């Protein structure tokens, strides 16, 4: 009977030890998962904070001669991308940090008075966070010249009519940014932006024929991506 009692106590201690080990493992796993979740959400929020107004106008103007290191704002953006993006990060069209930053340079050039407002963050597919945004901009002469340059060529009366309808208009678009997270290195491996530019353009121009013409040779797509 004493032997049986000792065996029961030993089995109980083993089960208790195994249970404690499992609890420690589960706690550690949850802690790691919590850090990862917090990190990807934090990265998404910080990115949208740093690029809320794109690349500053002063930076855009000097990139061609002095490079990205000329201004502190650009340094902060570049340092962030290098720290939190994989070297081959993609937006679905280009790969690499330098190429991604160049796309944002052009995006800023095409969007005067750019403001990207974060509305909410939510989990998408596994290892994906989706930021819902509201993108606002002003259609200036610079916007038309750089993004819709064909409006200054061809049929003068038609183009002038379209330019008159667009110039100076404030545009607000519903958008999103999808962040793909790489668990192995704790960095973003994909960053895909889109916004509905078609709806406000249709509202301003009044018909699909003119909208189609405006985007026919534009350097930006109706879903607000740089070509």
Automatic annotation (TrEMBL):
This is Bzip transcription factor. It comes from Phytophthora sojae (strain P6497).
